[in-house]
From TrEMBL:
Xref: NCBIfam families: ImmsucRedBhcD
Signal sequence, start to end: none
Alphabetical list of PANTHER family matching this protein: KETIMINE REDUCTASE MU-CRYSTALLIN (PTHR13812:SF19)
Source organism: Albidovulum sediminicola
Pfam families xref list: OCD_Mu_crystall
Protein name: Ornithine cyclodeaminase family protein
């Protein structure tokens, strides 16, 4: 099998590579050529979480699992709190084929998902990008969003305002004016990305103007919530995978409240594959519930392995 260490990923997989790999995977899911296995996620105590996201892509010849979790004590030991790695297997024989560092890949595949939703669903003339959240992942989401629309300004809110200047530096790198605003001013945004670990809604339906596209990316577990459920009732809702959206995604709350049903949610892959309509009018609110699926991880890990082999950087071991 081949090993591709975490430290090589930055030189092997770009945001563009991740976008292409994840978009192809979403389309394969919609064509039922690829599917995710049920997610396993366990609380280990003291805030630690660990889980496994896995799947099979018949068309892409990928079988594998991402093992990963959140370890809040790591920062104090000089390590990232999020730790993950991806394991790939030959779908014909079950032989392990690769082990790939998964930390940067997770950030890239998550940013790619929201960018794909913006590319497919936001109004073409979107000018103002609203960011709700300013943690580790927010910088990746901002960079990826800026690749798919000609934004002229970034407005941002974060529960912990001291984190905003760092996100402002990313906007400055991209040549975009940046302003910290109260949540009420998100009504000025054409596109809003939410990327927080919030346990209760911050963004309310009244904070969102007609015609806005939202990419809600923070809610990936039961009990997390970023937006008011009434917003999903007002919007056309899309997701990476409906089964995850209604159980661990942002839609879990609107579904539990009886405001929307699973049948109201469109997989983004169906839009990519030309099997479903995207935005239907300039005034429609579109909302992408990005829950994070295992196939996204396999797609970017596969891209990393191919590039590592091409550059002669993959480490071969016998298992
Ligand atoms: P982080 O710890 O670096 O940042 C957390 C963010 O949430 C910060 O902006 C913080 O201010 C904010 N926050 C914390 N408590 C809050 C509260 N009570 N109300 C509102 N905001 C609050 O984490 P990160 O790596 O940036 O990840 C952000 C979220 O995205 C996490 O919930 C993570 O699990 C999730 N995530 C989802 C995917 C996916 O595929 N959907 C992938 C990666 C991460």
């Amino acid at each position: 099998m081949l090993i591709v260490p975490e430290k090589l990923i930055a030189d092997l997989v770009s945001a563009e590579d991740a976008f292409a790999a994840v978009e192809a995977t979403f389309a394969a899911m919609a064509r039922e050529e690829a599917y995710n296995f049920p997610v396993v996620r366990e609380a280990l105590g003291e805030g630690r979480q660990y889980g496994f996201k896995s799947g099979l892509d018949r068309a892409g010849g990928m079988l594998g699992v991402k093992a990963g979790g959140y370890f809040p004590g790591n920062a104090g030991k000089g390590m990232p709190n999020h730790q993950s790695s991806v394991y790939l297997f030959d779908p014909e024989t079950g032989r392990p084929t690769a082990m790939v560092g998964g930390n940067l890949l997770t950030a890239l595949r998550t940013a790619a998902a929201s960018a794909i939703s913006i590319d497919r669903l936001a109004r073409r003339d979107a000018k103002v990008l609203g960011m709700v959240g300013a943690g580790h992942q927010a910088a990746f989401q901002l960079r990826a969003a800026a690749r798919v629309r000609r934004f002229e300004k970034v407005i941002a809110w974060n529960l912990h305002p001291e984190m905003l200047p760092k996100l402002g530096e990313v906007a400055a790198e991209l040549g975009l004016p940046f302003e910290a605003v109260p949540l009420e001013r998100m009504v000025e945004a054409d596109v809003i990305v939410t990327i927080t670990s919030s346990p209760a809604a911050s963004l309310m339906a009244a904070h969102v103007a007609p015609g806005t596209h939202l990419a809600c990316m923070g809610t990936d577990t039961r009990g997390k919530q970023e937006v008011e459920p009434a917003l999903l009732a007002r919007a056309r809702v899309f997701t990476d995978e409906v089964a995850q959206s209604v159980t661990i995604g942002e839609a879990q709350h609107a579904v539990a409240a009886g405001l929307i049903a699973a049948a109201d949610i469109t997989p983004i892959g169906a839009v990519v594959a030309g099997l479903a309509e995207g935005r239907q009018s300039e005034a429609q609110i579109t909302l992408f519930d990005g829950t994070g699926v295992g196939l996204q991880d396999l797609a970017v890990a596969g891209a990393a392995v191919r590039r590592a082999e091409e550059f002669g950087l993959a480490i071969a071991v016998e298992v």
